[in-house]
Task: structure prediction
Amino acid sequence: MRYTHELEFKVRDYECDMQGVVNNGVYQNYLEHARHELLLSRGIQFAQMTAAGINLVVVRAELDYRKSLTSNDRFVVRSLLRQVSRIRFEFQQDVFRLPDEILMLAARITGTSLNQRGRPYLPEALAELFSDDS
Result:
């Protein structure tokens, strides 16, 4: 896959459950942080969009848990952002343990943006991200 962004993390003890593995809900936090950093790297500040009345929202999250991360594991979230319809975009995100590059989780997160009236639309700042796609 042709990823356009990656972000490294390290598992913290408090992210693990009683079984000693990262709690399944914590992966959502990792993925969200990586999405925000991807957008920031493209000049889109999540907080500024919200302040302007544009709300970026997740409408679907598909997560395939392959293996479990444990305390102190280093890992990377690799992401690819693409437009999937006139008003929807999708993040393909994969979590790989480091240094062995084993796939731990594969995710597909679908989102849209809502205007001040709560209607879906694609603001110019996001549309510009996809203008280079072919």
Notes: The chain has three helices and six strands. Residues 24-41 form the longest helix (18 residues). The mean pLDDT is 94.
